[in-house]
């Protein structure tokens, strides 16, 4: 039934997108590949693998017998993703550029480009699903819960999902690699990419310092205000951060019930005074939040979920789904309360809401509140 229909597959050079293209061709689609180049500042083999990725894409296309177009979306990426990324860090937040890249580039610029070429739809190697239910499109979790990427796709709406296929929705990673190997795709055992291209494997702080100049300031204990050390800039740090503070040998303050050798964690930022606040111990109450506020909302169905229903949500990708309810929601913001306190809820990150396997959408965290027990 797919004969004669055209799908443009975003090929990244990895095994997932390669198998997505393979499966669609087996299903009878007219498959075309597209390789996106989204970064140019220091596109070298040392930090960014785009050159090798393109070589791998061309090899996959040759094996599958499909054509490939190489497009440069670097200008759009810088304007619509990277500029926001830097602005958020300057504001003391910790943004997630992968979320924005999906909504602004892969499922907007790329989608529009493919449709102009005459494609019926696009496809990617994301681990997620889409289905039509009761006249609306739903974004679903992938069968492989360890690889599910619906968190990064939660800003997709009806128009985007109506033109998108996720061929890997029902597959586990081991099956994807097996299919690639059976098809003779040389990327079958290629290591998964980590992070985003413009950062790569380099130290994150080193990268940020190229765009956000150092602004040294004090590191102080949140509990007693003690001066504990010095930072290069609050923008380089995130809530819950443990490594890179260089205060590991400092003991807890007078009257502290924390162990003298417990690790220190970032718990707050004072941008105006340029102070980084830290606490000792992973379970410190200041790192536990049972409420949050979010803005810049995006709901998959186009309308917000009901308030005071039981949902689950996560405030970071690798976090387990946590029971919650939406206490308030309007066009501008929402308030979410969790059944149990969540660790290091971070402004700038995304909170994503689920109803069973269905991803409802979410927003950008603007504020996290300390749980009730810590207030007493």
Tell me about this structure.
- With 376 residues, the chain is an alpha/beta fold.
- It folds into three domains: 177 residues, HUPs (Rossmann fold), CATH 3.40.50; 67 residues, Roll (SH3 type barrels), CATH 2.30.30; 90 residues, Beta Barrel (Elongation Factor Tu (Ef-tu), domain 3), CATH 2.40.30.10.
- Helix content is 24%, strand content 30%.
- A six-stranded antiparallel β-barrel has the order 12-15-14-13-16-17.
- The model has no long low-confidence stretch (mean pLDDT 92).
State the main characteristics:
8 helices; SH3 type barrels; Elongation Factor Tu (Ef-tu), domain 3; six-stranded antiparallel beta barrel; 17 strands; alpha/beta; Rossmann fold; 376 residues; five-stranded parallel beta sheet
């Amino acid at each position: 039934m797919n004969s004669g229909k055209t799908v443009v597959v975003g090929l990244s050079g990895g095994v997932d997108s390669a198998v997505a293209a393979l499966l669609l061709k087996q299903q009878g689609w007219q498959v075309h590949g597209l390789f996106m180049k989204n970064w140019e500042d220091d596109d070298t083999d040392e930090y960014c693998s785009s050159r090798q990725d393109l070589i791998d894409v061309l090899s996959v296309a040759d094996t599958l017998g499909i054509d490939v177009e190489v497009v440069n979306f670097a200008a759009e990426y810088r304007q619509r993703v990277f500029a926001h990324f830097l602005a958020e860090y300057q504001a003391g937040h910790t943004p997630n550029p992968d979320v924005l890249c999906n909504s602004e580039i892969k499922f907007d610029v790329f989608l529009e480009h493919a449709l102009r070429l005459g494609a019926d739809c696009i496809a990617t190697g994301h681990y997620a699903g889409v289905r039509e239910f009761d006249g609306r499109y739903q974004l679903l979790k992938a069968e492989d819960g360890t690889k599910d990427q619906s968190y990064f796709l939660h800003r997709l709406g009806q128009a985007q999902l109506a033109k998108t296929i996720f061929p890997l929705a029902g597959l586990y990673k081991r099956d994807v690699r097996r299919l690639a190997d059976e098809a003779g795709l040389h990327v079958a055992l290629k290591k998964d990419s980590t992070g985003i291209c413009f950062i790569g494997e380099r130290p994150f702080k080193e990268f940020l310092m190229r765009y956000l100049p150092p602004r040294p300031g004090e590191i102080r204990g949140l509990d007693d205000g003690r001066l504990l050390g010095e930072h290069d800039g609050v923008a380089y740090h995130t809530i819950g951060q443990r490594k890179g503070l260089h205060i590991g040998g400092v003991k807890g303050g007078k009257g502290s019930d924390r162990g003298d050798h417990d690790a220190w964690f970032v718990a707050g930022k004072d941008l105006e005074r340029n102070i980084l606040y830290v606490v000792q111990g992973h379970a410190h109450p200041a790192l536990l939040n049972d409420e949050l506020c979010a803005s810049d909302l995006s709901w998959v169905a186009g309308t917000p979920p009901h308030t005071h229903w039981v949902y689950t949500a996560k405030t970071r990708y690798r976090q387990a789904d946590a029971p919650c309810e939406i206490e308030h929601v309007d066009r501008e913001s929402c308030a979410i309360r969790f059944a149990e306190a969540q660790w290091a809820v971070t402004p700038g990150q995304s909170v994503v809401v689920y109803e069973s396997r269905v991803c409802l959408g979410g927003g950008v965290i603007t504020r996290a509140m300390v749980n009730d027990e810590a207030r007493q």
